[in-house]
Description:
This protein is α/β, with parallel strands linked by helices.
Amino acid sequence: xxxxxxxxxxxxxxxxxxxxxxxxxxxxxxxxxxxxxxxxxxxxxxxxxxxxxxxxxxxxxxxxxxxxxxxxxxxxxxxxxxxxxxxxxxxxxxxxxxxxxxxxxxxxxxxxxxxxxxxxxxxxxxxxxxxxxxxxxxxxxxxxxxxxxxxxxxxxxxxxxxxxxxxxxxxxxxxxxxxxxxxxxxxxxxxxxxxxxxxxxxxxxxxxxxxxxxxxxxxxxxxxxxxxxxxxxxxxxxxxxxxxxxxxxxxxxxxxxxxxxxxxxxxxxxxxxxxxxxxxxxxxxxxxxxxxxxxxxxxxxxxx
Length: 304
């Protein structure tokens, strides 16, 4: 049997990963334990694969996708395992035990977990070094970011190389953290966005527009630290910290810590309904994905 990538879990993330791998010429064997969910996987993966090739039209070879009836079939002959099971620690621990007993020895198990940390997941593994957390930004077939953590430096190097080979941009955590890097940043920003809604500073749609047409646009080419470096003028970050640091601290002190109580939740729901203007989730996803493709095609090679 030809070497393949095993994708474990055929939900939103597993299907997205599968589309990416297939578009980059890898053969994928996908195991989804829920029978009812298997019927639509092939068509959904093919739809997302077309998005990848729209973004990267120079991709020449397309891999194959096989939906397997058992986990063992997916793991047979695999050279990489991308695990996408629900965020349930006992479930994942049992899954890793099954994988260790069945998969080729020493093949890396990469968990797409977004909220769980490595030390919780490896507690019952025979060889914890096999597991890395490889958190993608959703949807992984379009968003390049993959956040990596593990204890085996050679395995981490190999993981970074693997993800680069399928057009992703890996970053590494020096120590594990709930939410990794990007979700912690996103959560911090959303906390203040919710606070502004709760305190009546601005409406949901105006807050979103302020982000999209302001910092969001800038952050698509430079990160937060570099943005403040440039914000310091010729003196860079040194000048900014020396002269504008106190004003930054003042803003930090004024940020809120909102509660998602029923009143705040209702404000958010009402605000999103107004911003969505009747568009369904499916419509919004299509518009998001088309915009992501256009932005990334425009930005290729232009990030600082």
